[in-house]
Design a protein that fits this description.
Layout lengths: L12 H11 L4 E2 L2 H7 L13 E3 L4 H14 L2 E5 L16 E5 L6 E5 L4 E5 L4 H8 L4 E2 L2 E3 L8 H7 L4 E2 L7 E7 L5 E3 L32 E8 L1 E2 L2 E9 L2 H14 L4 E6 H8 L6 H14 L3 H11 L13 E9 L2 H17 L3 E2 L3 H8 L5 H4 L6 E5 L2 E4 L3 H14 L1 H6 L3 E9 L2 E11 L4 H6 L2 H7 L6 H20 L13 H5 L3 H13 L16
Parallel strand pairs: 2-4, 3-4
Antiparallel strand pairs: 1-2, 5-6, 6-12, 7-13, 8-9, 10-11, 10-12, 14-16, 14-17, 15-16, 15-20, 18-21, 19-21, 20-21
Helix pairs in contact: 1-3, 6-10, 6-13
């Protein structure tokens, strides 16, 4: 779509002209369609519409954009792959410049001797995966399921969870950020003159201030991530009749620390996986080749491959109520297999039954998920996830509370034809629950952009039921409040979870407000996230 930088009545001509002079008119988008699209995220809960979208190519561009915004008194929000669902980059002010960070997409250094990779924050997870392939090294956190679009920078701001070990923030060695007054700052050992970015804790941990902040304190432009040798892996996959029993197994597994991943999903998602077509033959061969290249003990490797194979593809999932896959990793295959066996024994004790490991194998060695299929399901339903994090000791209580909440709202959900699925997962030693709300509605501009053609065509046959959508959104917030009252934490606090309410009145909240004053004096960086910067 072509830029139209001057004539729109609801943008500042001076600011637009300065942005065009800085990055070029082709990198400044001002058409209404572009501004609406870039002002939405997966939630499609609208806020304000950005006055312009600008696509910088360097940290220096970002710093100059921030200075232009400061001089004009307008806000700056940053958008990466826009796969978040908590309105992190959605504007709360109409006078907002939307920075599209996907042009900051260079991988700067892969240093396997000192075990770090340096990259710009607009790099997508699929690009980082491709760059590291064949090096024998990886970042311990492997990316979000939406890694074809999601950027590393978005994961840094939202404390990304997904595939691999724990969360992304655990593996950050240092950052380059642009502060709210346009200054560029480095953290970690990299901030010391003539020192490589090999270590994070260079005095006070300044890196941590800018992680998981939803973009409140600075715009992240570069990051250094820890590398580790690619370990040997053994997969397991287990079916459970009862999801409280499944969660009890997860809680016990968390105590052992044996797992790298342990992700569970209920019957709705099981049935969706069961209908997924078998990958093309060449794609399957590529997955097998990569696995074998990383697992030189061929006898053990082929044994693991056989556990992942089933003549019906994923059809064996049909009719299963709850399924959990997990992975165990070690420096050699025998150790990984022993760890997997111990996890399997825990699952069996809680009623789990082993099934083929097709899902974890495909997620680890296949491509990232097709985001277009997530925008709406086969029934034409959109979906909206919620997350809540608990210590593992509270996992079973949280799942029981969720099931009780579903029962209490059963009549309401049936009245509006709203369905609720549920995932649960381990992040190292702690546990998370992810209810997913589903209801029929036409796709909005954000989802329509990414959706597969069949989803788009199905959407055109639907009409909006305002009462149904309102009931679904209200249900989401009530579930969130219920979990928060139980002491939950959240990833992607952003603008949907009550971060301010959870901290207000504490010294911690006072300190964060003071930190905002220091890092973003004019409160122009992404106002509203974490409940900060709204004045």
């Amino acid at each position: 779509m072509s830029a139209n930088p001057i004539t729109l009545p609801d943008v500042s001509e001076t600011v637009i002209r300065q942005l065009c002079e800085l990055v070029g008119a082709d990198r400044v988008l001002t058409s209404l369609e572009e501004r609406v699209f870039h002002s939405l995220d997966f939630s499609e809960e609208p806020g304000e519409i950005a006055m312009a979208v600008v696509k910088p190519q360097s940290a220096e561009d970002v710093a100059a954009i921030v200075r232009i915004a400061n001089e004009a008194g307008v806000a700056v929000n940053t958008r990466g792959g826009a796969m978040s669902y908590t309105r992190g980059h959605v504007p709360v002010r109409p006078d907002t410049i939307m920075v599209d960070a996907t042009g900051l997409n260079r991988i700067l250094e892969i240093n396997t001797k000192d075990r770090y990779v340096s990259l710009e924050t607009g790099v997508r997870w699929r690009e980082l995966r491709a760059a590291l392939r064949g090096t024998g090294f990886r970042v311990p956190y492997l990316g979000t399921l939406s890694g074809n679009y999601a950027t590393v920078g978005g994961g840094l701001s939202q404390n990304a969870t997904g595939m691999g070990r724990v969360t992304l923030a655990e593996h950050v060695l240092g950052l380059e950020v642009v502060l709210g007054d346009g200054r560029i700052m480095r953290t970690g050992s990299w901030s010391t003159s003539n020192t490589a970015p090999f270590y994070r804790y260079n005095g006070p941990d300044l890196t941590g201030m800018f992680l998981c902040d939803s973009g409140a304190f600075a715009i992240k432009t570069k990051v250094h991530l820890l590398l580790e040798p690619v370990p040997k892996v053994s997969f397991g996959c287990v079916a459970f009749e009862d999801r409280v029993d499944l969660v009890k197994a997860q809680a016990e597994i968390a105590q052992t620390g044996l797992q790298t991943e342990a992700f569970a999903f209920d019957g709705h998602f099981v049935s969706e996986y069961a209908k997924h077509p078998t990958p093309p033959a060449e794609e399957k061969k590529q997955m097998v080749r990569q696995f074998l290249s990383e697992h030189p003990n061929k006898l053990r490797a082929f044994r693991n491959l056989l556990r992942a194979w089933h003549p019906k593809g994923l059809g064996f999932l049909t009719g299963l109520k709850n399924v959990m896959y997990y992975s165990a990793e070690a420096h050699d295959q025998a150790a990984a297999d022993r760890m997997e066996g111990k996890i399997a024994a825990i699952c069996k004790k809680h009623g789990g039954k082993a099934v083929p490991t097709t899902i974890p194998f495909g997620l680890r060695y296949g491509p990232f998920l097709n985001v277009g299929e997530i925008m709406a399901n086969r029934a034409g339903e959109v979906n909206f996830p919620i997350n809540a994090k608990f210590p593992a000791s509270k996992a079973a209580d949280a799942m029981r509370a969720f099931e009780s909440f579903l029962a209490e709202n059963d009549a309401l959900l049936k009245k509006h034809d709203i369905r609720v699925g549920c995932n649960s997962l381990l992040h190292g030693h702690f546990w998370g629950i992810e209810p997913v709300i589903m209801w029929r509605r036409p796709l909005g501009p954000y989802r329509m952009h990414y959706a597969t053609q069949d989803r788009r065509e199905r959407s055109l046959k639907l009409t909006e039921d305002a009462s149904r959508t309102a009931a679904a959104i209200d249900f989401r917030y009530r579930v969130t409040r219920m979990f928060r009252e139980m002491g939950s934490l959240h990833v992607q606090w952003a603008k949907c979870y009550p971060y301010k309410d959870a901290l207000e009145g504490s010294t911690t909240w006072d300190f964060l407000q003071q930190l905002k004053d220091i890092t973003d004096p004019a409160h122009t960086l992404n106002p509203g996230v974490l409940g900060l910067g709204t004045h």
